[in-house]
Structures are given as structure tokens and as C-alpha cells.
Amino acid sequence: MDYSPALMTDMYEYTMLDATLRDGTANRKCVFEVFTRHLPEGRRYGVVAGTGRILDALERFHLDDEDLRFLSDRKVVSPETIKWLENFRFSGSIKGYREGEMFFPNSPILQVEGTFGECTLLETLILSILNYDSAVASAASRMVSAAKDRPCMDMGGRRTNEWAAVAAARAAVVGGFKGTANLLAAQMYGLKAIGTAAHCFTLVHDSERDAFQSQINALGKNTTLLVDTYNIEEAVKTAVEVAGPELGGIRIDSGDLASLAQRVRNQLDALGATNTTITVTNDLDEYALAALQTAPVDSYGVGTMLVTGSGAPTCAMVYKLTERENADGVMQPVAKKSKNKATVPGRKLAYRSYEYNLADCEHVISGSEDALAAYRPADGWKNLLVDFVDHGRIDPQWQGHDAITAAHEYRAKALAELPITAQSLMKGEPVIPTETTVL
Fold first, then answer.
1. Which EC class is this protein assigned (predicted)?
2. 346 and 274 in one domain?
């Protein structure tokens, strides 16, 4: 579908733009910040994902004649604003936490600096991407921890919106997954694609043996055969008879997975197929994966619970104005004082401190640009902010397949630097506190 990311937004972004262009405040310099006030209940940490997709969208964030005609015909904005939008390109700067980084309540995950007019147009797109992708990556990371060293694969495409499926596949890999069944995601982002056959493939053949033979003829002996359409024990026996002991793998998609995996492993070994792997699927989540740690399973396929964030499909991230140019042209920190929704004024720095090579605190430093420029963190603190966009110029190192691979590897490293309780599936508080200092 050919569409403009500049219309993937809420109408009030454009009505605010229109009003501020009329009163002269649209060109005031501003700093907006993305953060979450809390993690999903009981979660110990979150994983940032989606920044690369934001940068991809930013490259196409402009309106063509048809888009402008739509805004004009609907009278969303005035003719003067239509003219302002004709050659719109984001010319501001963006920095924040890199993909794969851990985040906590009040972490300044993304900071967007530019004029009010251009920054406000990005709000909905940024939040929709970061909220969903980070939710999936956070769930994926918990699942990968529960699976220990066994690879997890995304099979959630049929359990969500078709475009969300592509985003989820990418975010899952950032979160630690090894591949996806979604071919569009594999094509777009260079991800490993996985998949062989479903139960209908067995059912369309006159016998299970015919189905297995057909699949092996097409894909070779290293393929994975689905063995729970009828009787698993008979299917495993038939699979080895057809493929021989070189059979690549079998998949189980129903029943008591731990017990079945144990029986199948013993059966495969008895038949001489000692190198044949076992993959299990069927509504897995991190708790099911943890329960399968002692079972002889080699890999997992995860669907519904992955693409729904394992019960937390959003991170509750918000996009708030924290600093703006006043009528005298001076940058001024601003904040909401709403009950239970108050914000911390000013642009931010973010660091993580360590003791004995383990993270012990997230430090958020807020203040004016001059005050932050003069600030010196303590020795050993890690700077968590990186530059993504500099005055409209996107840094390409944060886009594409290599960026996803780097994020995948970084997540594992960042998680290993947290106290081990981060990997607990028991409900608890964030694994490290966040301390906010206003200069």
C-alpha cells in the first residue's frame, strides 16, 4: 500500500499546526520527549525497539498533491497551512536510547528537537511505532530468557494486523528472536525466514506417508515434519522411515509438550535419528517456555503472545513538550502539573551507573541546554543517548538489516549488565531505580 507516513497521525496534530501558524508560535524552537511513567505491571525492564522504523518513515514524511487535496477538501487546515506543508521535510534533530537498550519508568527514550510545527506532526507516528515495537521486543526478551539457549522464532503473523505482523517480526529479532515466518518482514529487513508445512498439507494427501514423502522430495531430508496431525508416535516412525536417520527435524503443535517431547526424543534416538531436532509450537509464552526448560526441545515457535506483547501490547509511552522558546526567544523548560500526569521540565541527559559490573541505577538529568552542557557525570557512568537525526540528516547506521543485527546483539549485552532478577518471571518492581535530578 502506497501511503504517506505524514497522514498516519491524529487530526489534532494538523489543527494545532494550523492554529500555531496563525498565531506565530509554530516556529518556536521546542524539545519533545518520549517516556513512560510506568512499566507494565510486574515487569522488571523494557526493551527499546522501533527507532529504525521511525527513521525509515521520516525519510518519507511529506505530503503529495493528493494528500494536500484531502486536507484541503476536508477543511482540516487553512490554505495558508497547505502552502506551508507543500515542501515540508523534518529539519530538526532526534536523539535517544538505541534499539535493544533497556528502559525504565521516566527514561527519556527519545528526544525530538525542532520547531513546534514540525515536532508536533511526528507525535502519533513516533508513539504508535515505539509503543508497539517496544512491547513486542520486551515480551520477546522475556521469552528468550525463559528459553535459555534454545532459539525462538516468530510465528505470529496470523494473530495480528498484517502490517503489525511485519513490525512484530522486526521487533522480535531486536528482542532476541532468531527469525520469522513472515516473508515480507524477511524481505524488508533481511531476516531469517522459517517454515515448512501445516496440518492441511498432511490432510490433503491420501496418507501421512505420502505427505512426508512429498515434503522431503520438495525440501530435502533436512526439512522439519509436522507430526501431530493424527498419532504422534506413528508419525515419528513414518517420518524416519521416509527420511531415514538424516531427518532434519519434527514439530509438535499440540498436547502436553514437555511429556511429548521427552517421548519423541527417546523414540527418535531409538530409531537412530539422534540428530533430528524437536521444535514445539502451540500458544507459547514466557511461562510455558520456562516450564519446558528441562524438556528435550531444540527450538520454539511463538505466535499470539509475542505479537500481543504477552499481555502488555503497549508500553504506555507519551510524547510531551519539555522545553520551548518563549516570546523573548529564550529557551524555557515547561512541564505539566496535572494530577498523576506531571512531567519533569527541561531537556534530558541519561546515564546508567554500575557497581561490580552490574547496573545499579538509571540517572536522568534535566535542565537548560547550558546547564546540561556543563554537567559532568560520575566516573563509569554509561551515556545512554545516541544521535539519530542531526538537523534533518538521518544517520544511516541506525537503519536496515545491520542495525537490527546490532540491536539484537546489544540487547543481550545490556540485559547481562542488569541484576539477574531482571530475568525473573515473578512480578516485581523495575530491577534498578531511576533517579531524576533537575539542575
1. ligase
2. no
Q: Tell me, yes or no, whether 254 and 339 share the same domain.
A: no
Full residue range of the structural domain in which residue 116 is found: 5-136+312-438
In the chain, count H helices and then E strands: 16, 19
Tell whether 154 is covered by a domain: no
137-to-140, 176, 408 alpha-carbon distances in Å: 5, 8, 10
Q: Residue 343 carries which side chain, given as an amino acid letter?
A: T
Q: Phi/psi of residue 374, each to 5°?
A: -90, -10
Q: What Rg do the C-alpha atoms of the chain give, in angstroms? A: 25
pTM over 0.90: yes
Mean pLDDT by runs of 10 across the 439 residues of the chain is: 89 98 97 97 97 97 96 97 96 98 98 98 98 98 96 96 97 98 97 97 98 98 97 98 97 97 98 98 96 97 97 96 94 88 92 97 94 95 98 98 98 98 96 96
- 115 within a domain of the structure (yes/no): yes
**Contact yes or no for 113/31 (Cβ under 8 A):** yes
- Domain end point (choices 262, 297, 332): 297
Q: Which of 297, 326, 353 is the last residue of a domain?
A: 297
Cα–Cα distance between 266 and 279 in angstroms, integer? 15
CA distances from 394 to 34, 55, 408 (A): 19, 7, 21
Q: Which residue has the cell 499440540?
A: 254
Characterize the bridge pairing of strands 102-103 and 46-47.
antiparallel
